[in-house]
C-alpha cells in the first residue's frame, strides 16, 4: 500500500504532522502531482497475472478513495457561488456541484469516492468576524477597509444545507477539522482501513466467517480433543438477546453441552415442562452478588431454538 500525496499539501507548515504520522505507520508514501490539487490517493501492488508465483511482476492499482484538502476561504467562496446560482436552478435538475467541489468529474461516470477536508474553518470565520468588528470602529476618513468578502456572510445553516446537498447529489462527504494533527490521524485511519479491505472482503466470503479462529474477539478455539467446546457452547448461549455472561455460564454449568440439554428435554413429559426447564436455574448477578433465576422467558427462547424446525420463527417476541 502506497500513499500518494500532491506536492501542494507540503506547502503548509502543518504538513510535518502528516509526514510524521505516515512515518510512524511504516507505510510507503510518495510525493507526486495528482489530478486534483492538494489531494491524497492510495495505490496497491497487485499481481500482473492470475497465476501468482514468487517473483511475478506486480502492477500498482489505484484505489477508489480520493481525499481532497480544501482551504477555508476557498470552501466558503465556492459555497457562496453555489448559493447564488441555486435560486435559478429547477428543482428536478439538481445543483451544479462543480461550483463547490474543486473537481469536475463527480457528476460523470467516475467510480471514485471523493471526500473533502476543511481545516480551521471555525478559526478562519472567527478571525474575519473579529476583523470586521474592528473595522467598524475605524472612521471612514482614517482609511477604513473596503467591505468584506460576501462569502464571509455564509451562515452555519447554509453550510449544513450544502453538506446535505453534497451527500445526496454528489455522494461526497465533508469533514471539518481544527488542526493538522487531526487530519494526520484521519489519513492514518483511512490508510489502515483501505489496506485491510481485501482481507475483510475475503473473510466475508468464507463459510461461518463470524467464527474465525483468532480473528474475532468472540471466537473460540476448539482443539481436536474437545478442549474449548464448553466455552463455545457458552458463547453460543450469549448470542441470545439480553443474555449476560453470568446467565450463559449458569446454563452451561447445568448442561455442559447442547446434547445434554436435548436429552433433558426428551425426559420431560409435557411441552410446558420443556419450556420451563431452565427457568429455575440460579444466576449470581455481577452487581451485588445476589442470586436470581433465569426466568421463563429465556427458558422458552432456548427451548424454541433447540427444538423448532421453522427457520423463520421469531424467538424474541419483545425485540
Structure description:
By secondary structure, the protein is α/β, with parallel strands linked by helices. The protein has two domains: 2-205, Rossmann fold, CATH 3.40.50.10130; 229-307, Orthogonal Bundle (DNA polymerase, domain 1). The protein is 40% helix and 15% strand. The chain contains ten helices and eight strands. It has helices spanning 15-25, 72-86, 121-136, 156-170, 180-205, 229-237, 245-254, 258-267, 271-275, 296-307; strands at residues 2-5, 28-31, 39-47, 58-70, 113-119, 173-177, 282-284, 291-293. α1 links the parallel β1 (2-5) and β2 (28-31). α1 (15-25) packs parallel to α5 (180-205). The longest helix is centred in the middle third of the chain and has 26 residues, at 180-205. It starts with a strand and ends in a 12-residue tail after the last helix. GO terms for molecular function: crossover junction DNA endonuclease activity; DNA binding; enzyme-substrate adaptor activity. InterPro entries: EME1/EME2_C (IPR042530), ERCC4_domain (IPR006166), Mms4/EME1/EME2 (IPR033310), XPF_nuclease_EME2 (IPR047523). Belongs to the EME1/MMS4 family.
Topology:
Layout: E1 2-5, H1 15-25, E2 28-31, E3 39-47, E4 58-70, H2 72-86, E5 113-119, H3 121-136, H4 156-170, E6 173-177, H5 180-205, H6 229-237, H7 245-254, H8 258-267, H9 271-275, E7 282-284, E8 291-293, H10 296-307
Parallel strand pairs: 1-2, 4-5, 5-6
Antiparallel strand pairs: 1-3, 3-4, 7-8
Helix pairs in contact: 1-5, 6-7
